[in-house]
Amino acid sequence: MIPVDPIWLLALPLLFGLGWVTARLDRRQAARSLDPEQGHLTESLAALADGDARTALKSLLEAIRERPDALPLQRAAGTLFRRLGEPDRAIEVHLSLLGRPGLAEDLRLSCLLELARDYLDAGIMDRAQDSLEMVSASPDHAEPALGLMVDLMQRQRRWADALSALDRLARINPASSAAGLRFHLLMELGREGDAKSLCPDHPRLNRPSAPSKTLEPQLCVQCGFQARQPSWQCPGCRRWDTIRPVT
Ligand SMILES: [Zn+2]
Protein backbone atom coordinates (compact mmCIF):
# COMPACT_ATOMS: atom_id res chain seq x y z
CA MET A 1 0.00 0.00 0.00
CA ILE A 2 1.28 3.48 -0.80
CA PRO A 3 1.83 5.45 2.44
CA VAL A 4 -0.34 8.55 2.64
CA ASP A 5 0.40 11.50 4.89
CA PRO A 6 -2.60 11.73 7.26
CA ILE A 7 -2.72 15.49 6.67
CA TRP A 8 -4.19 14.74 3.24
CA LEU A 9 -7.19 13.08 4.88
CA LEU A 10 -7.98 16.54 6.17
CA ALA A 11 -7.68 17.94 2.68
CA LEU A 12 -10.56 15.81 1.41
CA PRO A 13 -13.33 17.89 3.05
CA LEU A 14 -11.57 20.99 1.76
CA LEU A 15 -11.47 19.63 -1.77
CA PHE A 16 -15.12 18.67 -1.38
CA GLY A 17 -15.89 22.20 -0.26
CA LEU A 18 -13.85 23.68 -3.09
CA GLY A 19 -15.74 21.56 -5.63
CA TRP A 20 -19.02 22.61 -4.07
CA VAL A 21 -18.06 26.26 -4.23
CA THR A 22 -16.85 25.94 -7.81
CA ALA A 23 -20.09 24.27 -8.85
CA ARG A 24 -22.05 27.10 -7.31
CA LEU A 25 -19.85 29.64 -9.02
CA ASP A 26 -20.33 27.91 -12.36
CA ARG A 27 -24.06 28.04 -11.89
CA ARG A 28 -23.86 31.69 -11.11
CA GLN A 29 -21.36 32.21 -13.92
CA ALA A 30 -19.30 34.31 -11.55
CA ALA A 31 -15.59 34.88 -11.79
CA ARG A 32 -13.84 32.41 -9.52
CA SER A 33 -11.05 34.78 -8.67
CA LEU A 34 -13.53 37.26 -7.21
CA ASP A 35 -14.98 34.80 -4.70
CA PRO A 36 -13.30 35.19 -1.31
CA GLU A 37 -14.53 31.82 -0.04
CA GLN A 38 -12.73 29.92 -2.77
CA GLY A 39 -9.63 32.01 -2.19
CA HIS A 40 -9.58 31.06 1.51
CA LEU A 41 -10.04 27.39 0.68
CA THR A 42 -7.22 27.49 -1.85
CA GLU A 43 -4.96 29.13 0.74
CA SER A 44 -5.96 26.53 3.30
CA LEU A 45 -5.14 23.68 0.93
CA ALA A 46 -1.79 25.23 0.08
CA ALA A 47 -0.97 25.55 3.79
CA LEU A 48 -1.98 21.92 4.37
CA ALA A 49 0.31 20.85 1.52
CA ASP A 50 3.13 22.73 3.27
CA GLY A 51 2.29 21.01 6.55
CA ASP A 52 1.28 24.34 8.11
CA ALA A 53 -1.88 23.34 9.97
CA ARG A 54 -2.15 26.63 11.90
CA THR A 55 -2.32 28.72 8.70
CA ALA A 56 -4.63 26.14 7.11
CA LEU A 57 -7.02 26.49 10.04
CA LYS A 58 -6.92 30.30 9.87
CA SER A 59 -7.83 30.26 6.15
CA LEU A 60 -10.46 27.63 6.72
CA LEU A 61 -12.13 29.68 9.45
CA GLU A 62 -12.19 32.64 7.02
CA ALA A 63 -13.89 30.45 4.42
CA ILE A 64 -16.45 29.30 7.01
CA ARG A 65 -17.19 32.92 7.88
CA GLU A 66 -18.01 33.49 4.21
CA ARG A 67 -20.17 30.39 4.01
CA PRO A 68 -21.37 29.21 7.45
CA ASP A 69 -23.63 26.57 5.92
CA ALA A 70 -20.72 24.62 4.31
CA LEU A 71 -20.83 21.92 6.99
CA PRO A 72 -17.99 19.63 5.76
CA LEU A 73 -15.65 22.61 6.17
CA GLN A 74 -16.70 22.94 9.80
CA ARG A 75 -15.97 19.28 10.38
CA ALA A 76 -12.51 19.81 8.86
CA ALA A 77 -11.96 22.85 11.11
CA GLY A 78 -12.79 20.74 14.19
CA THR A 79 -10.31 18.11 13.07
CA LEU A 80 -7.61 20.74 12.55
CA PHE A 81 -8.19 22.07 16.07
CA ARG A 82 -7.58 18.57 17.40
CA ARG A 83 -4.43 18.12 15.34
CA LEU A 84 -3.17 21.39 16.73
CA GLY A 85 -3.56 20.03 20.26
CA GLU A 86 -6.83 21.77 21.09
CA PRO A 87 -9.28 18.88 21.59
CA ASP A 88 -11.64 21.02 23.69
CA ARG A 89 -12.21 23.39 20.76
CA ALA A 90 -12.52 20.43 18.41
CA ILE A 91 -15.23 18.99 20.67
CA GLU A 92 -17.01 22.35 20.67
CA VAL A 93 -17.00 22.56 16.85
CA HIS A 94 -18.09 18.97 16.31
CA LEU A 95 -20.85 19.13 18.96
CA SER A 96 -22.14 22.34 17.42
CA LEU A 97 -22.21 20.67 14.02
CA LEU A 98 -24.03 17.62 15.40
CA GLY A 99 -26.66 19.96 16.83
CA ARG A 100 -27.57 21.26 13.37
CA PRO A 101 -31.09 20.22 12.42
CA GLY A 102 -31.37 18.19 9.22
CA LEU A 103 -27.70 17.13 9.19
CA ALA A 104 -27.18 14.46 6.50
CA GLU A 105 -26.70 11.01 8.03
CA ASP A 106 -23.30 10.40 6.42
CA LEU A 107 -21.96 13.71 7.71
CA ARG A 108 -23.49 13.07 11.15
CA LEU A 109 -21.67 9.74 11.44
CA SER A 110 -18.34 11.08 10.20
CA CYS A 111 -18.71 13.95 12.64
CA LEU A 112 -19.44 11.53 15.50
CA LEU A 113 -16.28 9.63 14.57
CA GLU A 114 -14.25 12.85 14.71
CA LEU A 115 -15.89 13.65 18.05
CA ALA A 116 -14.82 10.25 19.39
CA ARG A 117 -11.23 11.05 18.36
CA ASP A 118 -11.53 14.42 20.11
CA TYR A 119 -12.71 12.74 23.31
CA LEU A 120 -9.90 10.19 23.09
CA ASP A 121 -7.34 12.98 22.77
CA ALA A 122 -8.98 14.84 25.66
CA GLY A 123 -8.94 11.65 27.78
CA ILE A 124 -12.74 11.56 28.14
CA MET A 125 -13.04 7.82 27.65
CA ASP A 126 -16.70 7.21 28.49
CA ARG A 127 -17.92 9.76 25.95
CA ALA A 128 -15.47 8.45 23.35
CA GLN A 129 -16.94 5.00 23.88
CA ASP A 130 -20.54 6.28 23.57
CA SER A 131 -19.71 7.99 20.26
CA LEU A 132 -17.91 4.93 18.92
CA GLU A 133 -20.82 2.63 19.85
CA MET A 134 -23.15 4.84 17.81
CA VAL A 135 -20.85 4.94 14.79
CA SER A 136 -19.99 1.24 14.89
CA ALA A 137 -23.68 0.38 14.48
CA SER A 138 -23.50 1.77 10.93
CA PRO A 139 -22.08 -0.76 8.43
CA ASP A 140 -20.47 1.98 6.33
CA HIS A 141 -18.58 3.56 9.24
CA ALA A 142 -18.04 0.60 11.56
CA GLU A 143 -14.48 -0.26 10.55
CA PRO A 144 -12.70 2.93 11.69
CA ALA A 145 -14.96 3.11 14.76
CA LEU A 146 -14.05 -0.42 15.84
CA GLY A 147 -10.36 0.25 15.22
CA LEU A 148 -10.61 3.18 17.62
CA MET A 149 -12.63 1.05 20.05
CA VAL A 150 -9.79 -1.51 20.19
CA ASP A 151 -7.41 1.33 21.00
CA LEU A 152 -9.76 2.83 23.60
CA MET A 153 -10.17 -0.49 25.42
CA GLN A 154 -6.42 -1.10 25.45
CA ARG A 155 -5.81 2.33 26.95
CA GLN A 156 -8.06 1.27 29.81
CA ARG A 157 -6.53 -2.21 29.98
CA ARG A 158 -9.96 -3.67 29.31
CA TRP A 159 -8.51 -6.64 27.48
CA ALA A 160 -11.74 -8.64 27.07
CA ASP A 161 -13.52 -5.64 25.59
CA ALA A 162 -10.53 -4.97 23.30
CA LEU A 163 -10.70 -8.56 22.09
CA SER A 164 -14.45 -8.29 21.56
CA ALA A 165 -13.99 -5.12 19.47
CA LEU A 166 -11.21 -6.83 17.51
CA ASP A 167 -13.55 -9.77 16.81
CA ARG A 168 -16.20 -7.38 15.50
CA LEU A 169 -13.58 -5.68 13.34
CA ALA A 170 -12.35 -8.99 11.93
CA ARG A 171 -15.91 -9.94 10.97
CA ILE A 172 -16.15 -6.77 8.86
CA ASN A 173 -12.65 -6.99 7.44
CA PRO A 174 -10.90 -10.37 7.84
CA ALA A 175 -7.61 -8.75 6.79
CA SER A 176 -7.63 -6.80 10.07
CA SER A 177 -7.50 -9.93 12.26
CA ALA A 178 -4.14 -8.71 13.70
CA ALA A 179 -2.76 -12.01 14.97
CA GLY A 180 -0.01 -10.34 17.02
CA LEU A 181 -2.44 -8.07 18.86
CA ARG A 182 -4.89 -10.93 19.38
CA PHE A 183 -2.07 -13.08 20.77
CA HIS A 184 -1.19 -10.50 23.41
CA LEU A 185 -4.81 -9.82 24.34
CA LEU A 186 -5.31 -13.55 24.90
CA MET A 187 -2.15 -13.69 27.01
CA GLU A 188 -3.37 -10.76 29.11
CA LEU A 189 -6.59 -12.70 29.64
CA GLY A 190 -4.69 -15.81 30.74
CA ARG A 191 -5.77 -17.79 27.66
CA GLU A 192 -2.31 -19.10 26.87
CA GLY A 193 -3.55 -22.14 24.93
CA ASP A 194 -5.56 -20.00 22.51
CA ALA A 195 -2.65 -17.57 22.22
CA LYS A 196 -0.21 -20.39 21.48
CA SER A 197 -2.31 -21.61 18.56
CA LEU A 198 -1.92 -18.16 16.99
CA CYS A 199 1.80 -17.58 17.58
CA PRO A 200 3.38 -20.87 18.71
CA ASP A 201 6.93 -19.51 18.72
CA HIS A 202 6.33 -16.20 20.47
CA PRO A 203 8.91 -15.61 23.24
CA ARG A 204 6.17 -14.45 25.61
CA LEU A 205 4.97 -18.05 25.87
CA ASN A 206 8.19 -18.92 27.71
CA ARG A 207 8.42 -15.61 29.53
CA PRO A 208 4.86 -14.43 30.39
CA SER A 209 6.10 -11.29 32.16
CA ALA A 210 8.69 -9.03 30.64
CA PRO A 211 11.71 -8.58 32.97
CA SER A 212 10.81 -5.85 35.44
CA LYS A 213 14.28 -4.55 36.19
CA THR A 214 17.14 -3.87 33.84
CA LEU A 215 19.84 -1.27 33.52
CA GLU A 216 19.52 -1.15 29.76
CA PRO A 217 17.47 1.79 28.46
CA GLN A 218 14.56 0.74 26.29
CA LEU A 219 13.12 2.32 23.17
CA CYS A 220 10.00 1.76 21.07
CA VAL A 221 11.09 1.16 17.49
CA GLN A 222 7.74 2.48 16.23
CA CYS A 223 7.17 5.73 18.13
CA GLY A 224 10.48 6.38 19.87
CA PHE A 225 9.02 6.15 23.38
CA GLN A 226 11.82 5.82 25.93
CA ALA A 227 10.92 3.21 28.52
CA ARG A 228 12.67 2.51 31.81
CA GLN A 229 11.88 -1.16 31.69
CA PRO A 230 10.99 -3.75 29.07
CA SER A 231 7.35 -4.40 28.34
CA TRP A 232 5.42 -6.30 25.72
CA GLN A 233 3.30 -3.25 24.92
CA CYS A 234 4.66 0.23 24.28
CA PRO A 235 3.12 2.66 26.81
CA GLY A 236 3.40 5.43 24.21
CA CYS A 237 1.78 4.03 21.06
CA ARG A 238 0.24 0.85 22.56
CA ARG A 239 1.77 -1.33 19.85
CA TRP A 240 3.03 -4.73 20.94
CA ASP A 241 6.54 -6.19 20.59
CA THR A 242 8.09 -2.84 19.71
CA ILE A 243 10.15 -2.13 22.86
CA ARG A 244 13.80 -2.99 22.41
CA PRO A 245 16.94 -2.40 24.46
CA VAL A 246 18.99 0.51 23.15
CA THR A 247 22.22 -0.90 21.80
ZN1 LIG B 1 5.61 3.04 20.78
N-to-C series of helices and strands: HHHHHHHHHHHEEE
Number of domains: 2
Question: Could you give me the name of the CATH homologous superfamily of the largest domain?
Answer: Tetratricopeptide repeat domain
Distance between the termini: 31 Å
Give the strand line-up of the largest sheet: 2-1-3
Average pLDDT for all residues:
83
Helix content: 55-70%
CATH architecture of the largest domain: Alpha Horseshoe
Uncertain residue ranges? 25-34
Work out the radius of gyration: 22 Å
Major sheet summary line: 3 strands, antiparallel
Ligands in the structure? zinc ion
- Tell how many strands the DSSP assignment holds: 3
CATH class of the largest domain: Mainly Alpha
**What is the CATH topology assignment of the largest domain?**
Serine Threonine Protein Phosphatase 5, Tetratricopeptide repeat
Looking at the structure, what is the overall shape?
Answer: elongated
Number of discrete helical segments: 11
The fraction of residues assigned to DSSP E strands is under 5%
